[in-house]
Structure formats: structure tokens, C-alpha cells
Amino acid sequence: MDKALDRITLSGRRVVGGKASGEALVTTETISGWGGINEREGSIIELRHELRGQSFAGKVLVFPGAKGSSGWSAYFHMCRMNGVAPAAMIFTRLTTKVALGCVVTRVPAMTDCDADPFETIETGDWVEVDADAGTITVTKKADRA
Amino acid sequence: MRLTDAEKAMRDGEGGPAVARAMDLLIRYGEALDAPYLIETRNVAGAFNASTPSVREMAKDGFDRVYSELNLDSDDTVEIPHVVVPTCQLITGIDNENWQLQGVDPDMAELQKKSEAYQGARGINQMCTCTPYQVGNVPVRGEHCAWMESSAVIYCNSVIGARTNVEGKESTGAAALTGRIPYFGYHLPENRYADRRINVEIEVEDMMDWGLLGYFTGFAVEENKPCLTGLGSSARLEKLKHFGAAAASSGGVELYHIPGLTPEAATVEEAFGPGRAEETFTYGAKERAETYARLQSATDRKVDFIMLGCPHNSLDQMALIAELLEGKRVHPDTALWVHTPHAIRQMARRSGYVEVIERAGGVVMSDTCPSISRRMPKGVRVIATDSAKQAHYLPAITKVQGWFGSVRDCVNAAVDGEWKGAA
């Protein structure tokens, strides 16, 4: 992790290549695909989830990983087809569900960061993900104002 | 990721465009996992059917379009060849015999039949169940599989000792055309040891007991790998099926060991191998009672709908339900649907069980379940089920109230129209 010019840079491993940036949407709770998201709106619908009702469309989604049904990838796949996928995904626990989901959502995705993304990234921060270079650059929302 | 010459040839188009798209997806997926290579599989269980409204639009462009997009993640439509390894269809949304009772419109029912014919012509076996291991797809110990369906994956890994991760629609679609899947996770022997321990201090006897223990286990260990002790060695297919489905619903359990019962661990030492229990939990009368209370999401005792058979019932479960219903009549305000694979429904019919259930006013449903289809009889407000998995998902998905209990409590509720179950 590197702190310079009010920006924080994390290094990590590329899961899916590419570059994207957007506002962060952060949750420390795992996400269900089938039964957990609305694929037409790109929003979280799971009853007791802390992000229930919030949209991840166009955001940089920061989350621990996937849970629930094996339909995880299919639901994020449909989000892409419906134009409501996240701009990028950053997660901490690698499983087949989340990896396949990122692959078919076809957005830059990273894991194995050198600093805890939940300590460094907050909802509303501006996040640039360069998965090819293996870097995540965070501009804190306080510094954006 | 290292590729063999045969895999490079597939990638480069020697097997035709669909195989090339399949290999491209597997390479992207394998690299995402940081897998060292692909492993050969000859056992694929996936979801290929076009039985949901969102697929209907896409199916207007033909079933090759559906497979290309949803099972291969391919932007262009490629002609789908015959599968190269044994492949089966898991549970779907529509029962081909009872679609009218489900409230399915005739066009969707017709579309599903056409989709099945398309798949059959390409060698995809139409098992149409969440329990392929009950109707002929029984891997051997150590076999590398590519399966979807969390309740089937946990059974495959734990009870059979075969090896699979939780795959998805796209990876199973690609595996069917290439016979490959990334070498990752549960395919590696070193990832198959337990890392949590559950000491069971009470008797765990009937199906409800096993469902409760499974639901507790998932909450306790989340996605980790439990070793359970104190259980004896008498549990058979049905109980382990219920246990696993529950543990995969409340948590993300994909592998467990019961020393002396499941095949990869004769002893506790073997279950943990070089590792150890990072956490230990106790399951006693208090935990059982808390789990039972946690599964009840209903307050209204008048029940409209009884759902049995999640995961799909075995023939012995069908026989028991017929025995419990013999000479009785389902309450006029209550519907009873019993779910079983269509192959077992045929055996149950030959054995007379279907006739007994139908004479009592019940329906024997195959190919689907209410959580997958999101279809129930009209106007249902309160359900009862013998399945911890269904009691977990159905109220969340369809906003009904749910009672969970034993198969006896459920059959009694069907007859009385009222829930009187107890822990």
C-alpha cells in the first residue's frame, strides 16, 4: 500500500483484466447471486443484507465474496446483458462462484490485495482499478469534495 | 495456466467454433482462479434448459443462441455439437406432466419440451432433478466432476468422495463440450481435510433431526469444512441428503466428514490430516431447539400448502408418504405437492405409491420445485415443509410464511389444514 497526494494505492492479483473506475460500494457481507440480486436493476434484494435495495450498477463493488446457489455467475451474467453490471469488482475470498461470476460479467476484477480493502475503501470513495497492472487507486471521498 | 497440446488445439478451433469458445471460457476462468492447469472430467451436471421467461426472448433466435450466450459466454451464436462426456440436466422450472397445475402458460411448456429435444439430440441426459445421484449418476470415489447445485455438490464430495467445486452454467456448458474443468479447490487432495469440528452430544435419529443438524452446521461453520463426531454410522442416503442440503443453505458447506461413515475419513485423525480444528462447536439439546425455532418463519397455524421432497424424494420417502396418507384425505383448503425425480415417479407409480398420494388429493410433482420455479398453488400464504432448505429459501423468495417439521407433521397438516408440529 502506498499513500501519496491524497491517494491510496493497493496492489493485488488480476482476476479479470482491464481498467475501470467508479464510485465504491462496500459491504463486508457476502453476496448471493440467485435469490440475492435483481438482474434487471443491478441491485441487492436479499432480505437481511446490509445493502438491500442499493444498486451496484456502474459502481466498484467491494465485497468478501459469493455465497448461496450455483446460479451466482448466471445472475451476474444477466446483469451485464441488461447493462446493470458493476464497473469493477474487488473481493477477498476466492471461490469458483465469484471467479466465474467475474469472468462472465467481463469487468476488471481483483483479489489478494496487499492491504485490507475494507479498511482502505469506503462507500463513496473514487476507485480506479487497473487489473492488468494489478493496482487499485483510491481517492477518499473527503478529498474529492 | 499450462495447456496440453489437445487443449491448445481445441482453443485454436480444431474442434470447431463451439469447442473453441468453450476452451476460451475455461482458460479465462482457470486464470481467474490462478489454477495451474485443467483437469479431465467425464461427469458434468449443469443447467441447460430454457424454462424461464427471461430465456424465452433469447430462445426466439434458436437454442444455439441460448447455449452460446448462457452456457459458453459467447457473444456470437455458434452451432452446438454433441457433448463429448456424460452430461446431465439438473432441476428445471416446469414439470412436463403437471405444468397446468403449476400455472405455466402453454407456450412456455412447449418451449421447454423443444429445449429438451434439442439437448437430448446433443447427448444431454434429461435427469431433471437436483439429485442426479438418485437416478443413475453416481460417480466413483475420487472421480473429478463438474457439477452445479449446492445440495448435489456437498453430497458428491462428502458422501461419495468424488471431487467437484460448485460450478456454474457457463463452466458446465464448456466442460460438456471439452471434458475439462480448472484444477482448483476440492479437486486437490490437500484441500479436502476438515478445518472445523462439531461435537454432537444428542441422538440424531430421524430426517428432521438430520435437517436440523445440517442447518445448525451451516450457520456454525459458514463456508468451512466440518468434521462431525458422536453420530454413529447408521445414516443412509436420505438423511445425508437432507443434512447436506441444509448445511449448504444456511452456510456454504461443500464438504464434510463423519468419521466411520463418510469415505474419506475412517477416523478423526484422517478427517483433519495435517490440519486441525480452527474452531470447535457443540450441538446439544439447546442448539437443536434454537435451530428449530430459527427455521419457523410462520405464526399463522392455518396452512395452505405442504411442500415435500426437497431435495427430491427417494423411492423409500415416497413409500413412507403413501403409507402416512393411506385412507386419508387432504384438507379441501390445503394443497399437497410431493417432489421426486421423474424416473422415481415412474417407479413410485409402478409400486402404487403415486395412486395412494393422488387418491388422497396430493400431487406428485417432478422436474422442479417451488423455489426454482417460483410457482405454487394460487393464493398461498402459509406453507409447511419437511425440508430445512425449502424452509430457508421459499419464504425469502416468495414472501410466504413457512413452518418446518417432520414428514409426519407435514402430512398431518395436509390432512387437518392446520399446523400442529412440534420440536
TrEMBL record, chain A:
<keyword id="KW-0456">Lyase</keyword>
<dbReference type="Pfam" id="PF01989">
    <property type="entry name" value="AcnX_swivel_put"/>
</dbReference>
<dbReference type="GO" id="GO:0016829">
    <property type="term" value="F:lyase activity"/>
</dbReference>
<dbReference type="InterPro" id="IPR012016">
    <property type="entry name" value="PMDh-S-like"/>
</dbReference>
<feature type="domain" description="Phosphomevalonate dehydratase small subunit-like">
    <location>
        <begin position="31"/>
        <end position="110"/>
    </location>
</feature>
<protein>
    <submittedName>
        <fullName>DUF126 domain-containing protein</fullName>
    </submittedName>
</protein>
<dbReference type="InterPro" id="IPR002840">
    <property type="entry name" value="PMDh-S-like_dom"/>
</dbReference>
UniProtKB/TrEMBL annotation, chain B:
<feature type="domain" description="Phosphomevalonate dehydratase large subunit-like">
    <location>
        <begin position="1"/>
        <end position="412"/>
    </location>
</feature>
<dbReference type="InterPro" id="IPR007506">
    <property type="entry name" value="PMDh-L-like_dom"/>
</dbReference>
<dbReference type="InterPro" id="IPR015931">
    <property type="entry name" value="Acnase/IPM_dHydase_lsu_aba_1/3"/>
</dbReference>
<keyword id="KW-0408">Iron</keyword>
<keyword id="KW-0456">Lyase</keyword>
<dbReference type="GO" id="GO:0016829">
    <property type="term" value="F:lyase activity"/>
</dbReference>
<dbReference type="Pfam" id="PF04412">
    <property type="entry name" value="AcnX"/>
</dbReference>
<protein>
    <submittedName>
        <fullName>DUF521 domain-containing protein</fullName>
    </submittedName>
</protein>
<dbReference type="InterPro" id="IPR036008">
    <property type="entry name" value="Aconitase_4Fe-4S_dom"/>
</dbReference>
